[in-house]
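hey m, so remember when u said the C-alpha cells were messed up on ur end? i reran from scratch. heres the input so u can diff it against urs
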Amino acid sequence: MDLYARLGIKRGATDAEIKKAYRSLAKQLHPDANKDNPKAAERFSQVTAAYDLLSDKDKRARYDRGELDEDGNPKMPFGGGFGGAGGGYAGPRPGSAGFEGFGEAEGIDLSDLFEGMFSRGGAGGGAARGGGAGGFSGFGRRSAPQKGADVAYRLTVPFTDAVAQAPQRVTLRDGKTIDLKLPNGAEDGTKIRIAGRGDPGTGGNGDAIITLAIEAHRFFTRDGDDVRLTLPVTLKEAVLGAKVKVPTADGAVMLTIPKGSSSGKVLRIKGRGFAARSGQRGDQLVTLSVELPAADAALEQFVTGWDGGGNPRSGMGV
C-alpha cells in the first residue's frame, strides 16, 4: 500500500499533518492497547514504517520521485533488468529456444555479442560507451541485497533507574518486547543499537536504534558521574550532630551529620552516583541546608540571651 494511504493522508501533506495522522493511528493500534488483536500490531508496524520514511525529508523526496519502494529500499533501474516491470526487453531471453537465430545449438558465445553491443563501437565507431571501465557500467549485474531500514525509538528512563542501571522494558513496533540493559556511561541522548531488530530487507534486517531520555528528578540532579542532593536538617541536628536517613538511587542510607555543621557543607556518599564508561560509579554529594522553624518561642527566647556566635561576615571586610 502507498505510504500516504497507510496514514490516510494525501501526497503533498505537510510535516505537521503527517505527524498528526501517525500519532492518531499509533494511539489506536499500539500493541499494548490491542494485546488480543495481532492484526492491529501488524497495522501498527505498517503505519510506523510509513511515518519513519515520510518524516525523513530526504527519504520522502526520493520516495516521491519513485527511487525508493514502500520498504525504503532503492528500486532497480530499468525496471529490474530484462523482462522486469517498467520496461526493457519482454520477449524470450538470449539463449532460449525462442530467441531466433541465437539458440544454443548454434554454439554462439552470447557474452561476445553483448560485449560488442555495449562495450565496443560498430564498424562506424558510433556505439555509446557507459561510464566506468569496460563500457556500459554495471549492465546486467544485480545490485547487492539491501539491508532493511533502521528503526528509531526514544526511551524515557526514570532518573533513579538510570543511576542504578535498572533494566528497561522496550516494546518494539512489531509488538515484541525486550529488556534493555543500560550501558556504563549512559546519559541523556545516548544511542543504543540493537542489531537485527529493525525492518526486514533482502540483505538482512536493519537495526533498532534507541535514544535515551533521562527524566529530571524532583530532588536529585546530575553533575558528571556524581549525583547531587540538597538535604534539609534541623538546627539541633546541625549544632549537636546526628545520624539521619538520606535517599539515594539505590535506597535510603544512614549519614552522619558532624557537630557544628553549617548550611552549604557538602558530605560525600561513595559509589552512589552514575556508572562511568570504565564501570566505576561516581558519588552522591549531599549539601546540608539548615532549616529554622517559624515562630518557635523557645528558640527565640534562647537566641535573645545569646551573643550570636560572633560575626560570620568578618572575612568579607564587613
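this time it looks ok to me. The chain has eight helices and eleven strands. if urs says something different then somethings off w ur setup not the seq
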